Please model this.
Amino acid sequence: MLMPQRRRRNPLLLWELPRAALELASIPLATPALITVPWGDNHPVLVIPGFLGHDDHTRCLRGFLKSRGYQVHGWELGRNMGLHRVGGLDTLLARLDDIYQANNQTRVSIVGWSLGGVFARRLARARPEQVRQTISLGSPIGRINDPETYTQTVYERIGDEVVPKQVIDQYLMENLQPCSVPATAITAAVTPSSRTTSRKSLSQTSPRTWK
Model:
């Protein structure tokens, strides 16, 4: 079996878990800012967890969105180990369709955390008539094979398989294609074009197509 290429280590990755704990503890301090977020219009929102995450990890986010007037839904597919572990994209498309039909065929906003944001964009390309917009939070869009993300390395170790380079390249090319629905990517990247900050509600969407 081919072994994955050794990737350089980024010492900042050691701070990811302590940082996450600190950010969670600081949520009460953000309350004055959070209560200024505009109210929603009761349209459905699907929240997809990140790699190795599940619905419990998005409970706080979903609770906040619900408190602002949205019909919020978890992905209900267990731990996110990749789409192939839950039956492929068709399974997630079926989940989207269930939410769409249960809300009188109202288009769904999709919020994806990390790898969940990548899945959100795939759903938008496959079913633009059912997707209102996508919002990706810290998603490795265009960086799946970046050595500093460790996404591929962790995937290979947990899944006990090596992802061929041509599959990754094809996946990256697909992921970089613009969506036909409004798409927002919020990331920690320092390039001006990749950082997005907005206080608009999910109801205030634009017809513009974003990359």
In short: The CA atoms of residues 157 and 179 lie 31 Å apart. The first strand starts at residue 44 and ends at 48. The chain has seven helices and five strands.
